[in-house]
């Protein structure tokens, strides 16, 4: 069963900007799916169309088999949206935000009260239920939005940069919550700029750039394609120029810092052998970026270079 | 889906909003209309005498009540819906499976509730100054309801099309207030010179005020049936236009 099926989706804004150029996308039920792309790539437009906040120019969107145009009510009932920006009524209490949301989805009052309690407890917000929402911290506001999106028990939860601007501790606790929600059977689509987040949470991934899907595969096979790792080496003594080694691309970032691209077939032993050969002593070593970030940059760069050519 | 639950949710939210901020919504009309009754009705009215056979105070009470209904039904929807748009929590309703007509009916009902509640508050204050008589309670109640509905719809359209807080104050200040004051609240249209009588006939509020007043004192400058027909017609037109704006997503969707 497909949780989401998009066919030839296009969007051209009134100012002539073509945000989506006919994308196709499928997300299986139960998946934890990452939708990534640089700023202005078309992610938010796609999510806006799926959640009815943006009118599509053409194409179709189907949610759990319900066409968004023909079976609007059924399709919308399946979705819970956590938008990028805080958009609840800042004068309402946390509890009334969730109760109102449940009401909009036709949830009877008694059930709405039960679900509100359940979601607020899951998001560790139950003790804040009577607090006026504008008095909450940024991290709590983000969790209120997740609780609000889940109060009607959606089958498809769309998280549009849910951890933007929150500290690492809250971010990790939110990852745990998202994993739990997914394990309970809810399909999740996540957009994020923290690629480490997508890499650790998501099983499948699509990368969108300039209104087109440039990659759509499972995370494992995508990461397996990465054949070069980038490392930063801190040196004991300064160098005047970057050393030249066979099979490695080396840049001198500072007189005591080297950035080395290490092909998987070469490996670190070969690198260190050559470094030792030239009496270059290394104090420490770290990964320059996470693996997905490197792939993401390669894919987006390839698309940009291809278009320029 | 059961549309009653989302409809009830919007109405409860709207009522809770205007009751929570009662010093801004319910208190000012009580003070303003007390001053109207004191200055225009009591101090000046005693010297004016009667109009169409009614004491001046009794004559202006229905108009003042309806003027309050109009301004508050309008103000409630325009400020509530625009704030919802401004804070972007309108997205909660757009994403949810709430049909457009339920959104419209919910907000308009909230405006009607506030308009009628303020009308009752003003009516109670009026009883301190005048011996209110009722000629036909049904005519007064139904005209108050229709008028509140009409101006709640107008407020909704204003809020949907507004792009700034300035836009939601232009219509009340420069259109509604002049039309209300020139709508025969404080005088009979028959007292005006010929050309002004004709011009006044283009003011829809004149028809509503006269029909509402007819329910109290049994006297109207205008055919009451025509007033009901016209108000109903305006409601139908504005409701259709509001639904069209929601369908197109004007001001709320990209």
Question: How would you characterize this protein structure?
Answer:
Chain A is 36% helix and 29% strand. By secondary structure, chain A is of the alpha/beta class. Chain A has two domains: 2-223, Rossmann fold (3-Layer(aba) Sandwich); 226-308, 2-Layer Sandwich (Alpha-Beta Plaits), CATH 3.30.70.1560. In chain A, the strands form three sheets. In chain A, strands 6-7-8-3-9-10 form a six-stranded mixed β-sheet, with helices on both faces. A four-stranded antiparallel β-sheet of chain A has the order 2-1-4-5. Chain A has a four-stranded antiparallel β-sheet with strand order 12-13-11-14, covered by helices on one side. Chain B is mainly α and 254 residues long. Chain B has one domain. Chain B contains eleven helices and two strands. Chain B has helices at residues 4-20, 22-25, 27-48, 56-86, 90-95, 100-129, 137-161, 167-181, 194-200, 204-217, 224-248; strands at 50-51, 54-55. In chain B, strand 1 and strand 2 form a beta hairpin. The model of chain B has no long low-confidence stretch (mean pLDDT 91). Classes of the chains: A alpha/beta (309), B mainly alpha (254). The A-B interface holds A 13, 48, 51-55, 72-74, 76-77, 79, 81, 83, 85, 87-90, 99-101, 103-108, 148 and B 1-3, 5-6, 8-9, 13, 84, 87-89, 91-99, 249, 253-254.
Order of helices and strands of chain B: HHHEEHHHHHHHH
Question: Can you count the beta strands of chain B?
Answer: 2
Low-confidence stretches of chain B: none
Overall domain count of chain B: 1
On the 0 to 100 scale, the average pLDDT of chain A is 88
How is the quaternary structure best described?
heterodimer
The end-to-end span of chain A amounts to: 40 Å
Helix content of chain B: over 70%
Number of helices of chain A: 10
Beta-strand fraction estimate of chain B: under 5%
CATH architecture annotation of the largest domain in chain A: 3-Layer(aba) Sandwich
Report strand % of chain A.
25-35%
User: How far apart lie the N and C ends of chain B?
Assistant: 26 Å
Shape annotation of chain A: globular
CATH superfamily of the largest domain in chain A: P-loop containing nucleotide triphosphate hydrolases
Name the structural class of chain A.
alpha/beta
Number of helices of chain B: 11
The CATH topology of the largest domain in chain A, please?
Answer: Rossmann fold
């Amino acid at each position: 069963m497909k949780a989401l099926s998009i066919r030839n989706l296009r969007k051209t804004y009134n100012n002539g900007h073509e945000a989506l150029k006919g994308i196709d996308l499928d997300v299986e039920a139960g998946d934890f799916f990452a939708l990534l792309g640089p700023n202005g790539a078309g992610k938010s437009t796609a999510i806006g169309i799926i959640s009815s906040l943006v009118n599509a120019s053409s194409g179709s969107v189907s949610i759990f088999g319900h066409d968004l145009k023909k079976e609007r009510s059924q399709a919308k009932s399946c979705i819970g949206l956590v938008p990028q920006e805080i958009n609840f009524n800042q004068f309402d209490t946390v509890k009334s935000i969730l109760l109102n949301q449940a009401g909009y989805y036709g949830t009877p009052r008694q059930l709405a009260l039960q679900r509100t309690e359940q979601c607020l407890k899951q998001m560790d917000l139950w003790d804040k239920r009577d607090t006026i929402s504008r008095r909450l911290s940024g991290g709590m506001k983000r969790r209120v939005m997740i609780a609000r999106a889940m109060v009607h028990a959606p089958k498809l939860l769309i998280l549009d940069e849910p951890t933007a601007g929150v500290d690492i501790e809250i971010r990790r606790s939110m990852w745990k919550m998202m994993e739990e929600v997914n394990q309970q059977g809810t399909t999740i689509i996540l957009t994020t700029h923290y690629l480490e987040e997508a890499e650790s949470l998501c099983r499948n991934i699509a990368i969108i750039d300039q209104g087109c899907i440039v990659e759509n595969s499972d995370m494992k096979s995508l990461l397996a394609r990465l054949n070069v790792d980038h490392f930063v080496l801190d040196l004991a003594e300064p160098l005047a120029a970057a050393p030249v080694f066979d099979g490695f691309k080396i840049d001198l970032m500072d007189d005591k810092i080297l950035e080395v691209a290490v092909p998987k077939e070469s490996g670190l032993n070969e690198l260190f052998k050559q470094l030792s050969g030239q009496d270059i002593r290394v104090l420490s070593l770290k990964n320059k970026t996470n693996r997905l970030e490197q792939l993401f940059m390669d894919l987006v760069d390839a698309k940009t270079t291809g278009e320029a050519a | 889906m059961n549309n009653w639950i989302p409809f009830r949710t919007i109405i409860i939210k709207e009522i809770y909003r205007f009751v929570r901020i009662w010093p801004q919504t319910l208190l000012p009309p009580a003070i303003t209309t007390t001053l109207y009754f004191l200055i225009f009705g009591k101090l000046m009215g005693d010297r004016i005498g009667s109009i169409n056979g009614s004491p001046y105070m009794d004559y202006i009470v229905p108009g003042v009540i309806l003027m309050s209904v109009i301004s508050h039904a309008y103000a409630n929807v325009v400020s509530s819906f625009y704030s919802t748009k401004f804070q972007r929590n309108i997205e909660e309703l757009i994403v949810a499976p709430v049909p457009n007509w339920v959104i419209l009916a919910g907000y308009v009902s909230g405006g009607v509730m506030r308009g009628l509640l303020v009308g009752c508050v003003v009516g109670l204050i009026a009883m301190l100054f005048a011996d209110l008589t009722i000629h036909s309670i049904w005519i007064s109640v139904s005209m108050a309801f229709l008028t509140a509905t009409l101006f709640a719809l107008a407020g909704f359209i204003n809020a949907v099309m507004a792009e700034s807080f300035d836009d939601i104050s232009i219509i009340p200040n420069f259109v509604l207030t002049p039309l209300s004051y020139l709508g025969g609240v404080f005088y009979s249209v028959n007292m005006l010179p010929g050309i002004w009588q004709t011009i006044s006939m283009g003011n829809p509020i004149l028809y509503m005020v006269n029909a509402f007043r007819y329910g109290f004192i049994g006297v109207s400058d205008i055919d009451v049936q025509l007033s009901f027909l016209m108000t109903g017609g305006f409601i139908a037109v504005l409701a259709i236009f509001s639904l069209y704006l929601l369908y197109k997503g004007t001001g709320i969707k990209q």
